[in-house]
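Researcher: Go.
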Amino acid sequence: MLAPAPRTSLADTAAPHPILEELLIDTEANRQPPPRPTPPATRGRAVLLALSVVLIAFNLRPVFSSLSVTLPEIMAGSGLSPTGASLLTTLPVLCLGLFAPLAPWLGRRLGLERALLGCMALIVLGTLARGSGSVALLFLASAIAGIGIAINNVLVTVLIKRDFPRRAALVMGLYTMAVCGGAAAAAGMTVPLEQALGGGWTRALALWAVPAAIVTLLWAPQALPIRPRASESGMTVPGLWRDPLAWQVMLFMGLQSSLAYIVMGWLAPMLRERGMGAAAAGYVLSLCVMTQVVACLVAPLIAVRCRNQVGIAVAVALLAVAALLACLLAPLAGVWVWAALLGIALGGAFALALTLIVLRSPDAHVAAQLSGMAQGGGYLLAACGPLLVGLLRGWTGSFHASAYLIVLIGAVLVASALGAGRARYVRAVAVPR
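Model: Structure:
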């Protein structure tokens, strides 16, 4: 019987940034070893593929932020209750946790390219159907789009690692920026488009199917000719779910995501309840999302150079909670500053959560399994945040009670940061199946 790996100190062996770039592994690796690199055959195809990745990434978040800024109109026009609104904002986030584990199987079954194409079609269908005006179909359509987003979240990263082995860091950076850019664009442009084009919230939501459809048409001729590539898994990592450090990493991932999706789903309605106009509230949310880009790029560079990550993890957690409470309770005159600080904190926390998966893992196989645990379980936990905010709003008649929930999430987030930030490895080790 193999003995558990010791909790080795990383104080003198912090991973350099190039290693971090290679080991940020998503759940696809849970079921299969890293595929043999297959760089694009020509420079032109490489550019087209990178452009396609960026455009796919742009369409992975408008479903969330476009709903947020139009939620008061949806409730007023459809009679949707606060509880129903809470469930509606939570549903796509819940899909991220529930359906991401299907991505490895689907990628093997159809091939990465065809699986991405099918999920883009789901995003188009779901986004377009949200404009029907039917509340029942709005829920169903949000779930359909959420399933496509959940699977593509995983598969896009796998494709980058496979087809851009020497440019993975660059393309991943462009991918992250595009994800934030799509969320920011939907937050800032949905209400102005609604006012300019007319048609109310139904047309405003359905309009975001247009960029998704364009990308699907661009991707189809690249994806359809490519057949699946067979691969088999040879390693497993038993005991990971019994490891306290792995749970601390998962809690940090899930709770920072919970704060992020509270912001994505409810920051604009919070500001509108306080008297801010619909367009202005959307711009504030857009600013918050855009500032996450810089932090996403900088935080890993800082984290891997530290003897441990406790300090930076606690700092981003406290800043996120303080800035979100300020947006909720402080005078509106300073909301733009608080929104920018909130974006920096959330972007740093998300990038750090991915970094901790790598730094707490002794090898790539364990990192893959820990990534699946942290992302799958973490997103399920994250879904509770926006759900509870909506329920509290319905029960109390205002968002002020959410301040207590935010403080509670922040307290547990700090506690998980104190554990997950320590310079140790998880005890689990990879063994052949």
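Model: The longest helix spans residues 168-197.
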